[in-house]
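[step 3/7] inverse_fold.run input=structure_tokens len=425
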């Protein structure tokens, strides 16, 4: 099956799923309403948006210095930094760090999905438990996520009840409160038994060697705190210079991601847990982990940084605001890409995944520019998609119908086949 046949089949499946589209529509409407209530009433937000773009620009320009600084400062407080040039190398590093440990709890992480970490660990005999509610539902169902913030939002509550009833071996009604409580209770013992906790990160602070985790559920805090080992898997683009810069990120990300002034939990982790209560002697590993490892991943990011046509894609803070107003995403949701979704997802997939996986999303974009209007950093996604399409054409990754229209325009000055003109009104 060709790349285009695969993408087309997934699209038609999405168009036929009315219940899925209805669930997604309700969630997106809620996100948009809450975000606009904050953005329309904030007089200082424009300042923070400008500052954040300046911070991201400076950070990407100085990424190697920030990487060195972060490593030195984290290792000074007892953490360890590992550098991975690609996904396969990152997976092997994580496996080596774990050793013989088997039971792993995970927080939501796009980067681990990008490199296929779960599959890699499970093939090696590890047991991986997702603890984010949406990711737990997806793991139990075997389905693909549909949104980078709320990955299981497309699944109606009745279907969620079926999935969790089977997974948790109890008869659960389609009531969100009861379903959430059932997952909570099922995870309580697992956290205490887990040997390793794996999370991503929303930011890395270079001058303190700190990791930022932003969440609402509290599961990432458990994952990063309960097991004796915490592993952070994160892309190099998350590096920022200072704690003050991180505060700007925290002013913007929750507003554009979930329509909140601030999420329920913000964790800033600087090294393993420690105490000096006994004769001021520092001891690592008290109530939290005694080991903290950060796996810094490149996996195509340096190529993106070195390409002036796509460098701006590294500014993305993964808020999902572009998806919520994208007309294509509102129809296709999770099928509008692989791991990274939408127009910006096509660019990210091109550099971190495969050209074939990037092609479907790139050609589906309508160039309406809503993504740029809604993006807090005003990333010019349509311009990048246009350049991406040109490169895909050079690689032979262009739908046959679009190639035919292009040839018709060149040869006859019309997109229609010879002998078939535009309909006269």
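[step 3/7] decode complete -> sequence:
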């Amino acid at each position: 099956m060709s790349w285009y046949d695969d993408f087309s089949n997934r699209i038609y499946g999405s168009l036929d799923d009315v219940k899925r589209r209805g669930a997604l529509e309700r969630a997106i409407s809620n996100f948009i309403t809450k975000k606009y209530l904050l953005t329309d009433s904030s007089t200082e937000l424009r300042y923070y948006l400008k500052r954040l773009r300046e911070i991201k620009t400076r950070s990407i320009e100085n990424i190697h210095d920030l990487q060195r600084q972060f490593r030195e400062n984290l290792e000074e407080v007892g953490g360890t930094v590992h550098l991975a040039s690609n996904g396969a190398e990152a997976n092997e590093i994580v496996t080596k760090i774990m050793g013989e440990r088997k039971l792993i709890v995970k927080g939501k992480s796009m980067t681990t999905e990008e490199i296929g970490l779960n599959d890699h660990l499970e093939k090696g005999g590890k047991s991986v438990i997702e603890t984010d509610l949406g990711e737990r539902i997806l793991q139990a169902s075997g389905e693909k996520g549909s949104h980078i913030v709320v990955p299981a939002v497309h699944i109606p509550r009745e279907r969620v009840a079926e999935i969790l009833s089977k997974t948790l071996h109890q008869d659960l009604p389609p009531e969100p409160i009861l379903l959430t409580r059932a997952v909570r209770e099922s995870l309580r013992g697992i956290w205490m038994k887990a040997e390793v906790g794996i999370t991503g990160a929303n930011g890395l602070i270079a001058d303190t060697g700190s990791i930022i985790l932003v969440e609402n559920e509290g599961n990432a805090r458990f994952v990063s705190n309960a097991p004796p080992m915490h592993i952070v898997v994160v892309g190099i683009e998350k590096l920022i210079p200072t704690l003050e810069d991180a505060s700007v990120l925290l002013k913007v990300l929750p507003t554009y991601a979930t329509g909140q002034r601030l999420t329920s939990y913000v964790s800033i982790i600087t090294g393993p847990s420690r105490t000096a209560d006994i004769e001021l002697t520092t001891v690592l590993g008290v109530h939290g982990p005694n080991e903290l490892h950060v796996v810094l991943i490149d996996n195509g990011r340096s190529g993106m940084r070195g390409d002036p046509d796509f460098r701006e894609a590294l500014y993305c803070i993964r808020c999902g605001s572009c998806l919520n107003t994208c007309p294509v995403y509102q129809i296709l949701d999770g099928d509008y890409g692989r791991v990274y979704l939408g127009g910006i997802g096509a660019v990210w997939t091109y550099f971190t995944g495969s050209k074939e996986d990037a092609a479907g999303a790139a050609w589906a974009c309508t160039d309406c520019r809503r993504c740029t209007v809604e993006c807090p950093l005003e990333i010019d996604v349509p311009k990048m998609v246009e350049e991406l399409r040109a490169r895909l054409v050079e690689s032979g990754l262009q739908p046959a119908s679009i190639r035919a229209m292009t040839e018709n325009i060149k040869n006859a000055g019309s997109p229609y086949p010879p002998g078939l003109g535009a309909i006269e009104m």
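[step 4/7] annotate
The chain has a mean pLDDT of 92.
The chain has two domains: 3-21+309-407, 42-131+195-299.
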